[in-house]
Design a protein that fits this description.
alpha+beta, single chain, Arc Repressor Mutant, subunit A, Nucleotidyltransferase, domain 5, 523 residues, disordered C terminus
Length: 523
Amino acid sequence: MLIFLNNFSLFSGISLSTLKRKIEALDPVQDVVKAVHKSSIQKPGPKPWILDDFNRNVVKRTIHDMYRKKQVVSMPRLHEVLKEKDITASLSTVVRTVKSLGFRFSKKGSGRRHVVERDDVVALRHHYLRQIRKYRQQERHIVYLDETWLNSNHVVKGDWLDEPSTSMSVFEPHCEGSGRSLPSGKGTRLIILDAGSSQEGLIPGVGLIFESKTSSSDYHDEMNSEHFTEWFRDTLIPRLTPQSVVVMDNAPYHSHLDPESRAPSTGANKPGISAWLDKNNVDYDPKMKKTGLLDLVNQHKPQKKYVIDELAKAHGHVVLRLPPYHCELNPIEMVWSDLKGFVARKNSTYKIKDCKKLFEEAKSHFSAERWAKFETHVVREYEEKLWQIDGLRDKALSPVIIHMTDDETDDSQATIVYCQEGGTDDEEIDMDIVDGYVSDTSDQADVILCKICHDTDPPGRVPKRDRGTHIDWFQCDTCDQWLHNKCCTKPALAQIMCPRCYSLLHHRKLSETLVSPLDDMEQ
């Protein structure tokens, strides 16, 4: 073939390279090779759409609402429900969002795939709900902290434009299509760190605002463990009330380990693992493989200690971390929305200095009463609903049985048996099961009186076969008073509370005591 091309080039006067290029252009195999090569070097497509924090919370609340209504949570069904709430994301975006929120898929008996939450996330949520309720009952000062961002071009979106077809502007050409001139882009970004409580609102003098120096899309990249630790130690702790509870999320700079509690991981090399074992006086064979050394590390690994937790503990405070993917349990998120809304309505210069002044002005107008409203909203709309969804109770006790003797005795001779199951606070109980069944006799009717009706028999007509033989009772988890099941309202009974304690819990101000002294009740 090459000899033929050389001879043809000599007789025709066409260069050899030109002949080769023309022949290759007519070769179908070369066309396929070029097409494959072109497709392999094409630029990647646009990044997948990501829902913002507000819509992510809507997705999670929608799943929980479907749980409460006992509906099957599948991706197509969830996609349709979100469309009704004006979230027009694609099915693939919904799937990615659900996975990023800590949910996983499991197969039920029908073989279909359903979405459920990861067990570790549920366990951490149970722990948080129990702890935060315990601290409120102890009347501890609860402080919430978090970080956020604010762009210099943060303004209210949308305007009323002067359109020629709908106004008199047809006679004033210079006014056609007039409206605000908004800058393009987001502008310079401010990073904000603050803390507050229902007693003080935003704590005076602890706020930190600085200008972003990077172009990262995640504002969390602006903060590091050194800066946060310095702010926590030197600024926040001196202004905390004694024995406060500090609530924060699980950001990496919130949870950096104390150097003494760090242990080698699978990414460490063998000399580093050996050095750690020598430092902790752990016997090992130098000829052991890396996997064997890591097993020894896991057996002698110290308990994790976080720098922030130790700082708080040294000053008499406690750190409580939010469960993963549950930022809605922090009322400061609603505070950020309120303050940013003020800046967006007032921002007209789009300068970073003016935005900073507007934010400080918004903080000066923010009161402790408004914070208390936000915190009350979080307790009622999120915490209480999560308690109902998870079927939690403060104490996991089996039904309480009171055995009465047949002869006439006083209260001290009555035997009350509490059957404890498991012994841990993390157990779950079905809320449909009514706690507390009391076996009583008519001869001992004066031993226990109902807190509501002050009688041994429940109000209303009681069948003759049941009189004096078996009466359903339960004990309030908050005030420890005994009541007839029939005397209690259904919402209060579902949470094992008397109507009074239930009312105080759901209609109180968080700055007041959860349960006032029960002076008018028999102890």
